[in-house]
Amino acid sequence: MGRPTEERTAITVTVTDRHEEVSVQLSGAPEDADAVFGALVAAYPCDRDAEEHPHLVDQSGHPTIWSATYDVAPAETAAPVAATALGAPVAAELSGSYAAVDRLAQALSSGFAVEVEHAVSGDGEKQLRVRLTSSPAANG
Q1: Which of 3, 6, 31, 126 shows its CA 20 to 30 Å from the CA of 111?
Q2: Which segments of 3-133 does DSSP mark as H helices, in order?
Q3: Residue 99 in 3-state DSSP?
Q4: CB < 8 Å & 24+ apart, contacts of 50-57
Q5: What's residue 135's pLDDT?
Q6: What is the pLDDT of residue 65?
């Protein structure tokens, strides 16, 4: 009587669908916010509908904030953020993981002049407030 043979199967799981989301809140003129969103959506997947454009809802003079979430992973498949002209500065607040926020901030600097106004780091999260103006390349 022989011993039964034991058959083993190895299972390997590879996770390739990694998301690194960055929440982006913009304030400024609607047409300038739309230009920023347009430049970003050409580079990264977004939760915002391509046909959704910023517009003023409240005419009381209070600032309006528009938001979108971008998936900035994997970096090697992202298109560059195109140099984009803005009529006026746009305030942007980026929040997400350290690497994701840094990646999006770096990408923004290829399409806009970026001035960091404030940065806050927490437990695995980073918040960055920047001021975007037209890049010299966009002004021709």
Answers
A1: 126
A2: 30-41, 98-111
A3: helix
A4: 54/26, 54/30, 55/30, 56/30
A5: 86
A6: 84
pTM of the complete model beyond 0.70: yes
Please provide the distance, in angstroms rounded to a whole number, between the alpha carbons at the two ends of the chain.
86
Q: Which residues contact 126 (CB under 8 A, 6 or more apart)?
A: 94, 95, 96, 97, 98, 101, 102, 119, 120
Segment (H or E) for 68: strand 65-71
Could you tell me whether strands 126-134 and 21-27 are parallel, antiparallel, or unpaired per DSSP bridges?
unpaired
Positive or negative torsion for Cα 93, 94, 95, 99: negative
The one-letter amino acid code at 112 reads F
- How much is the pLDDT for 101? 94
Q: What is the pLDDT of residue 96?
A: 94
Question: Which DSSP category does 77 fall into?
Answer: G
Q: Strand, coil or helix: what is 132? A: strand
Structural tokens at position 62: 């209070």
Averaged pLDDT in 10-residue chunks for the chain of 140 residues = 60 56 92 92 82 63 82 78 93 94 93 95 93 84
